[in-house]
Amino acid sequence: MTADLTAGEASATAGLSDLDTGPGRLANRLDTVDLAAATPQDEQPFAELGLRAEEYQRIKDILGRRPTTAELAMYSVMWSEHCSYKSSKVHLRQFGDLPPSDALLVGMGENAGVVDVGEGYAVTFKVESHNHPSYVEPYQGAATGVGGIVRDILTMGARPIAVMDSLRFGRADAPDTARVLPGVVAGVGGYGNCLGLPNIGGELLFDDCYAGNPLVNALCVGVMKHEDVRLAKAEGLGNKVVLFGARTGGDGIGGVSVLASETFDAEGPAKRPAVQVGDPFTEKLLIEACLEIFAADLVTGIQDLGGAGISCATSELASAGTGGMHVDLDAVPLRDSTLTPAEILMSESQERMCAIVEPDKIEAFLAVCRKWDVLAAVIGEVTEGDRLTIDWHGERIVDVPPRTVAHEGPVYERPMSRPADLDALQADAPPSSSADLRADWLAVVSSPDGADKTWVTEQYDRYVRGNTVLAQPEDAGVLRIDEQSNLGIALALDGNARYARLDPYTGTQLNLAEAYRNVAVSGARPLAVTNCLNFGSPEEPEVMWQFAEAVRGLADGCRELGLPVTGGNVSLYNQTGETAINPTPVIGVLGVHSDVRRRVPSGWRAAGETVLLLGETRPEFGGSAWASVVHGHLGGLPPRLDLAAERALGELMVALAEERRISSAHDLADGGLAQALTESALRHSVGARLAVPGDPTAALFGESAARVVVTTSAPEAVRAAAEQAGVAVTELGTTGGEALVLSGDGGAGLLELPLDELREAWTATLPALFGSPEVAVGTVPAGTVPTS
Amino acid sequence: MRIGVITFPGSLDDVDAARAVRLAGGEPVALWHGDDELAGVDAVVLPGGFSYGDYLRAGAIAARAPLMRSVIDRASEGLPVLGICNGFQVLCEAGLLPGALTRNSHLHFRNRDQGLLVERADTAWTSSFTTGQQIVVPVKNGEGRYVAADADLDRLEGEGRVVVRYVGGNPNGSSRDIAGVASEDGRVVGLMPHPEHAVEELTGPGTDGLGFFTSVLAALVVAA
Questions:
Q1: Residues A562 and A690 placed together within one structural domain of the fold
Q2: Cut 0.80: pTM above it
C-alpha cells in the first residue's frame, strides 16, 4: 500500500510526539502495556491522530484498557480512510459479488489481483493514487507513488514489467500547474526509468477542479508463472520475520492519516515531512533480490511496506496467518537513532519489505540480500496464540489482536444525497452547432487535453526490457511476455471526469467502455478490470453519492461485459475547501494478445487504404471536449452507453486483428473523429481524403461511444465481418496526400488541413506551456531537481 | 562466439544487450560486477542503466568494480568492449575512452528514436555498416551530453575517432553532435544511443542496432 493523505481528516503528528516518550526527545517514560493498564485515565491525542471519539473508545473496548502510545499510533494509521476503506468498503463489496471468473487466480483483498493469461503465465496489475503527496512535493510524491505500486506487484511474486501514469492538473496555464506538472513528470520518469520499467501509456488532462488537488495515479503490471504466486501471510510457528531493504527513517510519518497539518508548532521539535523520499536504486536492488529469493523458494509469506509502514506489514501478515507474531523493535535498522517506537511503527520510509522465512532458510535468504547489497534484519518471529506483541528496550509496548488493527476497523455507511445542482447541470444542454469547423478542429487538437503529449512521454523510458510492442500515444500499451510464443498483454487507463460529473453511474461505465475499447482496438481480448477512484470528501453526502453511483456503475458494467474487478484503490478527500474535484474514476483494463505480432497500431502508414468508421454517430456533445474547449460548457448528459454494442465492437476488433484485416485502428473518445483523425494522420505523416455524412458538427466533434476508425486494404472483408457482428460501417474515404481533406453530404467541401499546419497546432501547446527543451538550456524547471 | 554482458547493481538494459547478442548469432554470457575474471569471453558489453543509482557521478562507482580491472587489462590487449549509455559513462570514468557525459543541456531525461550518422565503419563494433550510413536507434538518457576540451575534440575528430554523430537534431547538447567515440585501436567503442533497442521490428524503431552486434562477431571471426 502507498499513502495518499486524507487531508480532510483533522490530524497531526504534533500531538503524537508531545506524548510519545521514547528514548529520544521528551524522554521521561516509556508508555508500556503495563503502564497503560495502570494509568487508564491518561489523556491521549487520538483526535490529532485522526481518530474519532467513538473509534478511540472502540480501541479501548478491544484492548480492555487504554492503548499504549505505540498501539494508538498503529490503530490510527491502520484505521485511516486510506488503509481501512472505512467509508468505501460497504460499496466496494459489489465488486466481490460479481460472477466468478475463470481468469481470476487471486481476487480482491491481496496486494493486487492475479489473472491467468494462458500458457502458464499469470499477470498482476493495479493502480494507486499518490495525489496529495504529489501536490506537496511533486517530484518525491510522484516518484514514491511509482515505487509503492511497484512493490505491491512485486509482493505478489511477480516481476514488474511496466508502468503507466494517469495525471490530472489544474488549468494548464495556471502558475501552480507550472510548479506541479514538471516535478510530477520528472518524478514518475525518474523513478520508473531508474527501476528499468518501461512506461507504456497513460493520461494527461487538465481542469480547474484539480488546482490544489492534482491526481497522480500510477499503474504497475507484473508477470509470473502460476506456481510463483505469493501471498501476504505469516504462518509456521517459529518462522522468522525479516525486514529488508532501506533503513527506517523519519519520512512519511503518518502519511496515511496526516498530511496537511496546521498544528505544526514553531517552538516544538522539527517536524519531518509526511511525504516520503524515494530511492529507486535501492528499489531496483530490492526487486532483483526478491525475485531471486522467490526463485529459490525462501519465503512463506511476504508483504511490502508502504502506507502505515511496519504497523501495516506486521498486522496484515499476522492476521492473514494464524495471528501470533512477536517483534523486537530494537532490531529495526534505523536511519535516525532518535526515532521513538511509535514513529518507527508509523514511518513510511520507502523501499522496505517484510518476509516470513523458515529458520533453516534464513542463511540462504540473508546471502541473497548480501549479494544485492540489501540490508536485512530478523525483527521477530511467528508465535503461538493470536496476539501481535512488540517490545522496545525489553519492555512490551504493543499487545493487540492483529485482525482488529488490520481488518476490523470502523466501517461507515455515510449519508448520501444526489448533488443539488445535478438536475440543472443535466438540463443545461450543450451547444450543438459549430460556426467554424476548421477553427474548432484546431482548437480541440491544440487544447492542452488534445495536444501531443511528447513533452511528457519522452521523459519516460519506453524501451527498457525490450518487450514494448506498443506504447504511448497508442490507445493501449502492449507488451510481449513470451519471446517464443509471442504471448502478450495490453493495458489501457481511462477516466473521463466530465462524463462522471454529469452522471457518475453512466460516466464510470463510459470510462470502463473506453478502456475496454482501447484494449480491443489493439487486437487484445479484454480480460480483467482494475480501478482508481478519485473523489472528494466522503463526509460530504453529495460526494458520497457520486462515489456510490460510480461503484455501482462499474460493478454493473463489469457484470455486463463479463469482466472481473481484480482490485483497486480509493482516494478520497480530494478537495480544497468546499469544492470537490469532479468525480474521477480511472478505469484500467487488461487484455491478452495470443500473438503480439498481430497487434494493431493507431497510425496510418500507407496511402491508398480505405478509411472506415465503425459504430454509430449521434449528435452527442454533453461533456465533450469540443463543448469544453470551444464553448467552456459542461452540461447535459454524457453520450449514450450501450455495453452490448461495445462488446460486439470489441469482439469484432479482436477478430479483425487475428485475421490481419486492418492496418490501423483508433478509438474515438475525447474530441471525437477530429481528434482521432489528427492523431492517425500525424503519426507517420499520411493524409486522407474523406467524406463525412450527416451533420458535420456531430460527425467531427460528437463523442458517441462504441466507435473506432480503421484503415484496411480489404474493405469488403471488414464490411462483411462488421455486418455479421451487427456493427454499423461508414466508408469515409482513402488515405494519402499531405493533408486531411474533408467533404460533407453531396461532396460539399468542409475543410482542408495541411498536415504541416495540423502538426504545428498539435505539437506546439505543451512546449509553449512548460518550456521547450531546446530553449530551456541553463534553466531548471521548477521541481525537476529534488532538494532533499 | 561468447559475448559477456556485465551486470552492475542498477544495470537495466543487460537483458536487452544479451538478447541483441543472441539475435546477432552470438552466445551471451552473464558477467557479475563483483567477479574477478572475464570467464573467457571474446568481447564485453557494458549495458545501459543507472549503475549505483548514478550516485557520485554516472558510471563513477561502477568504473571501480572488481571486474572492471580485468576489462581494462584485457582492453589493452585488444578485447572488443562496447559501452552503451551508462556503459559509455563507465568507460569514460574508467579512462578507456576520452571525454565525459554530463547532464543534458535541457535538464530532462529524453527518450526518442534518434538518427545517427556512422562515421567510422571499421571499428570492432561498426564494420557491418558503411561509412556515411544513416541509421535510427533509440536514445534515452538524462546525462548524455558528451563533453571534452576543444583540443581533445579536435584530436578525436582529426584521428577519426568519432564513430557516430547525431543527425536530425542533437538530443542532449553533446559537443559537435558526438554520439559515440572509439579508442585509438577501434576496439573499444562507447555511445549514448541504445542499439540493443533496435534489433527487432516488433519492439524497436527498426533493426539498425543489430549491426553493432553482428560487427563484433565478424571481427572475432576474422581474428580467429
A1: yes
A2: yes
Q: How many alpha carbons lie under 13 Å from residue B92 in its C-beta half-sphere?
A: 25
Domain end call among A377, A400, A423:
A400
Whose cell is 540493443? That residue is B196
What is the structure's pLDDT at B224?
66
Q: Is A782 inside any structural domain?
A: no
Query: Residue B18 is part of a domain; what is its CATH number?
Result: 3.40.50.880
Alpha carbons A50 and A52: distance in angstroms, whole number = 7
For A743, counting Cβ atoms within 10 Å of its Cβ (0-12 exposed, 13-18 middle, 19+ buried), the class is middle
ipTM: 0.97
How many secondary structure helices (H) and strands (E) does chain B include?
A: 5, 11
Q: Name which of A588, A591, A600, A593 is nearest A488 in CA terms.
A: A593
Q: Which of B13, B53, B204 sits opposite A194 (nearest CB)?
A: B53
Say how many C-beta atoms besides its own lie within 10 A of residue A445's C-beta.
Answer: 27
CATH number at residue A166: 3.90.650.10
C-alpha to C-alpha distance for A627 and A639, rounded to whole angstroms: 13
Q: What is the pLDDT of residue A264?
A: 30
Encode pLDDT of B74-90 as tens digits: 999 999 999 999 999 99
Domain membership of residue B146 as a residue range: 2-223
Contact A352, A246 (CB under 8 A): yes
Are A150 and A3 spatial neighbours (Cβ–Cβ below 8 Å)?
no
> pLDDT under 70 in chain A at which residues?
1-28, 108-109, 254-275, 773-788
Which residue of A191, A464, A774 to mutate against B (max B Cβ within 10 Å)?
Answer: A464
Domain count for chain A, please give it: 2
CB contact under 8 A, B16 and A464: yes
**If you measure CA to CA, which chain A residue comes closest to B108?**
A459
Q: Distance between CA A129 and CA A571 in Å, rounded?
A: 6
Question: In chain A, which residues have their Cβ closer than 8 Å to the Cβ of B111?
Answer: 457-463
Residue A48: the pLDDT is 87
Shared domain check, A106 and A78: no
- Rounded Cα distance, A298 and A12, in Å: 40
What's the confidence (pLDDT) of residue A473?
A: 95
Are A62 and A208 in a shared domain?
no
Distances (CA, A) of B198 to A302, A458, B19, B210: 37, 17, 11, 7
Does A82 qualify as catalytic in the annotation?
A: yes
Kindly state whether residues A495 and A533 are assigned to the same domain. yes
B65 vs A contacts (CB less than 8 Å): none
The answer on A694 and A607 residing in a single domain is yes
What pLDDT score does A273 carry?
Answer: 55
Closest CA to A276 of A303, A314, A307, A245: A307
The verdict on residue A774 lying in a domain is no
What is the structure's pLDDT at A323?
82
Q: Do A458 and B197 touch (CB under 8 A)?
A: no
Stretch 766-785 of chain A: residues touching chain B, C-beta under 8 Å: 773-774, 776-781, 784-785
One domain for residues A169 and A313: no
How confident is the model at residue A579, as a pLDDT? 87
Domain count, chain B: 1
A583 and A482 belong to one structural domain: yes
Residue A266 belongs to a domain:
no
Q: Which of B32, B33, B103, B108 to mutate to test the interface with A (most CBs of A within 10 A)?
A: B108
Q: Which three cell numbers stand for residue B98?
A: 576520452
Q: What separation, in Å, do the N-terminal and C-terminal C-alpha atoms of chain A show?
A: 23
Range of the domain at A553: 98-226+443-769
A279 located within any domain = yes
Same domain for A215 and A354, yes or no, is no
User: Which pLDDT score, from 0 to 100, does residue A255 have?
Assistant: 60
User: What averages of pLDDT result for each successive group of 10 residues across chain B (224 residues)?
Assistant: 97 98 98 92 98 93 96 96 98 97 95 97 97 98 96 96 97 97 97 98 97 95 75
